[in-house]
Amino acid sequence: MVNLGYSSVEALRGLLPSLDPKDMDLGEFREFYRYAYHFTRDRTSATLEKDIACALLPLVMGNRSPHTHTFVQFLEARTSNDNMTFDQWNSFLEFTRAIGQDLSEYSDEGAWPILLDEYVAWYKDRP
C-alpha cells in the first residue's frame, strides 16, 4: 500500500472508484481499453483471438455502447478472420462514440476498417 503512495486504507479506498471503468472519463477509458487489448492477447501474437475478444468486449465496454452485444454476436457468427487486430479493436471504440444505435451517422465513405463495414451490413440485414 505504501509502495502505491497511500499511507492508509481510507486513502486507498478513495482511489478505488477511479479504477472502475464506468467512472472513467473518455481519455482514461480509452487508455484502459487499449491496455485491456494488450494485456489479454497472447504475447506471441499481434492479434487477439476472436473468442477472447468476444468475452473481453462486454467486460471492458460495460454499458458504454448499444453496439457491444450485437457486435459480439456478429463476431461469433463470422467464419473467417478469427483474430482481431489492434486497429479493429480501437476502431470499435471510436465507432461506438461516433455512430448511434440506429447507424444513421454511418457512411459507406467513412474510413472504418472493413470489419466494421461488414458489421454494419450484417446489422442492417438481420431480422
Automatic annotation (TrEMBL):
It comes from the Eukaryota. It comes from Tribonema minus. GO terms for molecular function: cullin family protein binding; ubiquitin conjugating enzyme binding; ubiquitin-like protein binding. Gene3D superfamilies: Cullin, PONY binding domain. Residues 1-124 form the DCUN1 domain. Pfam families: Cullin_binding (PF03556). Neddylation of cullins play an essential role in the regulation of SCF-type complexes activity. One of its GO terms (cellular component) is ubiquitin ligase complex. This is Defective in cullin neddylation protein. One of its GO terms (biological process) is protein neddylation.
